[in-house]
Design goal:
By secondary structure, the chain is α/β, with parallel strands linked by helices. 25% of the residues lie in helices and 29% in strands. It has 3 domains: 3-109 and 238-305, FAD/NAD(P)-binding domain (3-Layer(bba) Sandwich); 123-235, FAD/NAD(P)-binding domain, CATH 3.50.50.60; 325-424, Enolase-like, domain 1 (2-Layer Sandwich). The protein has helices at 11-23, 45-50, 66-69, 129-138, 152-163, 184-196, 291-305, 375-383, 391-397, 402-413, 418-424, and strands at 3-7, 28-33, 72-76, 79-83, 88-91, 96-98, 101-104, 108-110, 123-124, 144-148, 167-172, 200-203, 207-211, 216-220, 225-228, 230-233, 237-239, 255-256, 268-270, 275-279, 284-286, 318-323, 326-332, 341-347, 352-359, 362-369. The strands form 7 sheets. Strands 3-2-1-7-19 form a 5-stranded parallel sheet. It has a 5-stranded parallel sheet with strand order 9-16-10-11-12, covered by helices on one side. Strands 22-23-26-25-24 form a 5-stranded antiparallel sheet, sandwiched between helices. A hairpin with a 4-residue loop joins β14 (216-220) and β15 (225-228).
Length: 425
């Protein structure tokens, strides 16, 4: 009997397991997850911090017998190593699993910056349910909270902390907030917005040391010291693939996959935040750690694991962020490409910014702040690689005419109709 082993019990692992069961009702399926909790979504943790859901609300599947009913075996352990030739996985509980097909869906792990005192009591990541419990105990109204990092995940955590009524400071090494998603103007506007909402923001600043104690004393590179009852380290994540060293499976930034999500070893696949897949917009392989990608990669990988040849259509580079009520979005090559053209429109008084990037007559990326009405259209133009023709010049003159350009260009080419549906809603 065929045995499918899945490493990782997050959204990618669970969707893959369910897809396998649907198409291979008699096969054996084992999912290995390293947390004590039932499989849950990390993306729900901010909603738990705010109080919109309880812990059960973070669970990926609500029935306590869901996995048993499907005949999916759940094992609580971490993978220590993979023997690709011998087709076995060694777990940290001493168990060895033999597999016919393997899916690596171990996701990401938080980065620990090399800061003296980073492991002090009162310093936490915001990554697991265990982290969330510790944060909720300390992030009471009026508590002094310092957050290290103002990237995409950091801004989502910041929103949840602000809703808890804490006194919040944020420290970001980059010269602006969300520097991997936003250009200088957009990132600066988000910082200004946060400050008007009562958040103290230090950009272009490093945490140099954290002095243990009650309160913690945080030393900043600008010479200031900030007292904190809680420090949250949100300095980024990296693919959790250390256990693959010497496995024979090719890894770059993540586990390198082909269009079928298969790795360099036949029968071994990868999906989600740990997978490096081809992005047709940028023309290179990327790790795009967002849940829609994890779900689609898991589905495609699982179909290939049961012999149903399926190709991944591409990797979506989408970031839509709500920062204390200010909506910003980033798609594709928002920084632009060599030899490309760009146009920007900024209305700081209205809190609106739009930046469009072109290669020839194709829009390859964009940034927006406070410009919510065109988000679907921006995605459609970038992902659909729509040839704009003469509409490119129109957008260079007036970037707000995105909807007109989309309707005129994309519909004629029969690409991604979803954006046009927005207009009809």
């Amino acid at each position: 009997m065929t045995h499918h082993v899945i490493l990782g019990a997050g959204p990618a692992g669970i969707i893959a397991a369910e897809t396998l069961r649907k198409h291979a009702p008699a096969d054996t399926i084992t999912v290995v997850g390293d947390e004590r909790e039932p499989p849950y979504s990390r993306m729900a943790i901010p909603y738990l911090l705010i109080g919109n859901v309880d812990e059960r609300g973070t669970y990926l599947r609500k029935s306590a017998t869901h996995f048993a009913d499907l005949g999916i075996n759940l094992v609580q352990a971490s993978a220590k190593s993979v023997d690709a030739k011998g087709r076995t996985v060694t777990l940290d509980n001493g168990q060895t699993l033999a597999f016919d097909t393997l899916l690596i869906a171990t996701g990401s792990s938080p980065v620990n910056p090399p800061i003296p005192g980073i492991h002090s009591a009162g310093v936490h990541h915001c990554w697991t349910l265990e982290d969330a419990r510790a944060i909720m105990a300390l992030a009471v109204p009026g508590a002094r909270v310092l957050q290290l990092g103002a990237g995409f995940i950091g801004c989502i955590i910041m929103e949840a902390l602000a809703a808890r009524g804490v006194s919040l400071s944020v420290v970001e090494m980059g010269d602006r907030m969300v520097p991997r998603m936003m250009g200088p103007t957009a990132g600066g506007m988000i910082r200004d917005w946060c400050e008007t909402k009562g958040v103290q923001v230090f950009t272009g600043t490093r945490v140099e040391a954290i002095e243990p104690g009650t309160p913690l004393m945080v030393h900043l590179s600008n010479g200031q010291k900030v007292a904190a009852d809680l420090v949250i380290s949100a300095a980024g994540v990296r693919p959790a693939i250390g256990f693959l060293e010497n496995s024979g499976i090719t890894c770059l930034q993540g586990v390198l996959t082909d269009e079928h999500l298969q790795t360099s070893v036949p029968g071994i696949y990868a999906a989600g935040d740990c997978a490096e897949a081809f992005d047709k917009v940028s023309g290179k392989t990327i790790v795009s750690a967002i849940q829609p990608n994890a779900a689609e990669q898991a589905r495609v990988a699982a179909l290939n694991m049961v012999g149903r040849k399926t190709e991944l259509k591409g990797v979506t580079q989408i970031n839509v962020l709500d920062t204390l009520g200010l909506i910003s979005a980033s798609f594709g090559n928002w920084e632009g490409v060599a030899g490309g053209e760009q146009v920007e429109l900024t209305d700081k008084a209205e809190g609106r910014h739009l930046s469009l990037q072109f290669k020839g007559d194709v829009m390859v990326g964009c940034n927006s702040v406070g410009w919510t009405e065109h988000v679907g259209v921006m995605r459609g133009l970038v992902e659909g690689q729509v040839k704009l023709g003469s509409w490119k010049a129109t957008l260079m003159a007036d970037p707000t005419r995105l909807m007109d350009a989309y309707l005129a260009s994309a519909q004629g080419q029969g690409t991604w109709s979803g954006a046009a549906d927005e207009r009809r809603r």
